[in-house]
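Researcher: Going back to the complex we discussed earlier. I've cleaned up the inputs and rechecked each line, so this should be the final set. Can you rerun the prediction on the complete assembly and write out the structure?
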Amino acid sequence: MPDFILTVNQLSKSFSGVKALDNVSLNLRKGEVHALMGENGAGKSTFMKVLIGLLAPDSGEIIFEGKNLHDSNVGETLKKGISMIHQEILIVPELTVAQNIFLGREKSVSGKSGWLWGWLDDSEINEKSEQVLKQLGVDISPKTKMKYLSVAQMQMVEIAKAISNNAKVIIMDEPTSAISDKEVEMLFKMIRDLKAKGVSIIYISHKMDEIFRISDTITVLRDGKYIGTKNATELDQNSLISMMVGREIGQMFPEGNTAINEEILSVENLGKKGKFSDINFAVHAGEIVGLSGLMGAGRTEIARVIFGLDKSDEGMISISGETVQINSPLKALKNGIGYVSEDRKGLGLIPKMSVKDNITLSSMNRHRKGIFINTKREETATAQMIADLRIKTSGMDQKVTHLSGGNQQKVVIGKVLLAAPQLIILDEPTRGVDVGAKFEIYKLIRNLAENGMAIILISSELPEILGMSDRIVVLSKGRQTALLSRQEATQELIMKYAVA
Amino acid sequence: MPPTQNLRLTKFGQYGIYLAFLILCIVLAFSTPRFFTVSNLLIIGTQVSINALLAFGVTFVIITGGIDLSLGSMVAVTGVVAATFAHPDTYPLAVPLLAGLGAGLLFGAFNGLVITKSKVPPFIVTLGTMTIGRGLALILSKGRPISNLSDSFNFIGGGNIFGIPFPIIILIVAFIVCAVILNKTVLGRYMYAVGGNEPAARASGIRVGNVKMWVYTICGILSAMGGILLTARITTGQPNAGAGFELDAIAAAIIGGTSTSGGTGTMTGTLIGALLIGVISNSLDLLNVTSYYQQVVMGVIIIGAVVLDGFGKKD
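Model: Rerun complete. Updated structure for the full complex:
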């Protein structure tokens, strides 16, 4: 028997009768990167919550370093050496890096006991933090306030915190969802260093290429059930996806033969100080134009200007050949431009409202009678949209927060579609969406284009851009470096222009 | 994640306020013979009416994620303005009413304008206008109460129609109108959207500034109704009237389940909240509890209601 640092045996957990985890097992070796894969709702987050002691399992056992972790709470598992880096990083922005690293353990450093009262001396924790950061090869001063760091740097501080806590197992939940490609490389280097030091890592991500690059072992969950554990070398992308969804996906990107018609939108010399400049492209009815580039290249910023969320400093925007001034989202919608934001929670949904109220929010003008809401018309339109987009919901009055990520995304798309745009900007439409729903969203996009909608598709995933776009605008640091046709575009070519 | 352990508490949190109100009324009906009499219930209704009007107004505001601390000052300003035109044999009744309501409308619109244009938080803006309003009321009345008001004006605060006090009739009509605005109009839907997630509301094509302007203006008009009612009831325009009313109104809204973080709340909840406050202070009166203790009880109830509301949100 190889030396497993963590063994999970037949863990089960139910919520009001629904099995979120059904006999899930996992063996974690010392110094390995173990990827945990599964669609949204597969039970990954419940599993993690049980592992770190946030939830108590109904049955099953967790053995860490030979000892049963029965009834441990979060504080105890942390002390024993299991740390989690959450997807949404939990930090105190006004405190310094060192103060964050030692938050809640200020006294343990100096060996003094007691809590809350007494003087704090930062010099000691600054020194210790500096050691840990240096050990990780991170160049951040422990005295910097947390709020001045980038997301990637905050993540590294979180890792430093785990290390300073003597973590033997670090759980990383979607660590690359908000950082740039270059930062991903730094993170991966750090993970490899940690491995070499014998730290085990449980790595959760939706990004296939990352999983194959970084992980040694892959465990797949589906619908709360344990599906299997394989060495990463035994799997490829297709076999992994079919393990996750339980069927062959086949063609990921639906074929389309879109006839391209009249011009809907064109931007000329569009620029915004400090963000992007000299952007030129046009989108025609029935055409999908991809906007590609690394993080910070200006993709979302361009979309925000076209949709009137931000103002441009130079250049012009024309709709069907006529120059328009778009200074608010309302104006954009009136000009037939819809925008599905990458920030679903921040700019897409009203979480406290129902599916219906969210879906009709941009088109109340067609669902009203004077000052009153025309409920009947509203319900008809919502039912139609739920059917068309195949939104899985228990009803139109369901709160939108109770839907899965993919279905929430469909609600946002539905809202924009009901506003009847002729052009729709989709900004990372499949982010945080599981594989099955991804495929459905691709089909939907293709369908819209075939019905004459002009589409701008923004995505960080190159296969998505290549699979869907008719033409591709490549951006690098706010400049437009290429405009490629579907035929000439390749992954390598796009990358070449993206770093140009 | 499906809701779990707190399911029962969740249900209680959602309907707890209604249940608490019902239980309180039943207990009082049996323990205090004088409570459940028509005359006492009408007294409660009359006493509650002013606070309920203000609470309706501030419910709109809180649903959009704002707050209005100037309610009490608006009561004073609008009361003084109305009283100025309400002396016997001067103007027809419509003049003091329209002047008072107009003053409330302008005051509320001013709140809304400053909040939308300056981007200063509503708490601070209305803290300022609270003081401005109090000053205006003193200036307009030269610091003295304005008495000698016409009978027809005083009828608004003290008269009966078919035995029902006029303030209760106003209360019922205002409740219906406010509930319709909130639930049946596009503006009401937009209020929830703005309070639920302002950037998303804007990105959905909603004129967020317009919604806020409307909300503070409506709140001003409802405050003016409260101001006129109060003036007519005490038959005097009092520049010092209404001090602290904003806190009772906010308390009614919060007890009724309106979330201070915006995006949720109902008019029925607020009405029950106002009635609960009224019933409690009435019953403590009947039980001869001094008003000092009444304030302590009220504070405990406000906190208790929000704690219950917290259980209602755990899912």
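Model: Worth noting: The two ends of chain A are 51 Å apart (CA to CA).
Researcher: Good, that matches what I expected from the previous run.
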